[in-house]
Amino acid sequence: MMRRRHGRRRGGEEDGVALIATLCFLATAGLLALSLAALSQKAAFGNAAEVGRMRSFYLNEGVANRVRYLIEADRSAYPLRRPDEVDFDDYDFDRYFADSFVHSMDYYGTPVRFVIHNGVRGIDLNSREGIDVLQQNRLTDTVVADALELFSTRLTDYMDSDDSPGTDGLEKDDYDALNCNNLPRNDAMQFKEELFWIPGALEVTPVDGNGDLSIVRNLQISNGGNPSIFAATYVELRTIGGLDEIEAATVYDALREWRKNRTKLSDQLDVLTLPQLQMAFSWEDSRYYTIEILRPEQGVGAGLRCTFQTQGVGGPSNGIAPYLEYSWF
Asked: How much is the pTM?
């Protein structure tokens, strides 16, 4: 009888071990299932983001082409190209000026926001005059003055043809030590993004919220005249406009109101400030335009910035529409 009891107890122990093994297997299987579900969800989110990003590329290219045509058509129909002299309430359709105003468009069921800037904006740094302009009216702050002086020296070293650095400047041996081979250019810059290669440059020519060096003019538009008032940054108001800190802040607030509601600057600024701005900046459209398509407010997507010279509503004779800038952000 003791043997029978021993046999029953042994069988119970085996059943318990089997139950524990089964529970462990189920737990492991559950963890694997949760892991697969998590990985699948992550992959789905990743694919959705990539699809949204790629879709925005095609969408933005289509919008850019349409806006470019609308600008040409507006120029053809309305030769007057001074936005602040137009009463937009007189039109039951949108007008397309280089006024830095945020437009909206329904592009085949997709809402898109875009801004049209005057292509002639920012400071021309391919000239000594441009560097001097950057230094104007900012020398009261010793730190800023020192940074500007250093930048001026290094930019000169970058573009001149000799290998003799100025004080704290940089020439070939210095760039080699920074693992920046084939620098400096020793000639005029070909594109403004070369400033990213010059140490200390971004301290005085910072990028905007979209990563663009908007304070610096497109180098293919060096002789376009005065920069546009409607696209002016605070730094431009201080340097090109020659305004002090309080005046520049006041004008910049007025520009923000213009870009939001098209409230005329003449209705916001005093009669002493306006003539100064009218001499320093251009108030009319040039023949250059920059279309900036903004990122979508919801979902994933990229923005597009492209600059071109107008060629008439019929487009270029060879059917190829060139751009001076075409960058994603």
From this structure: 0.80
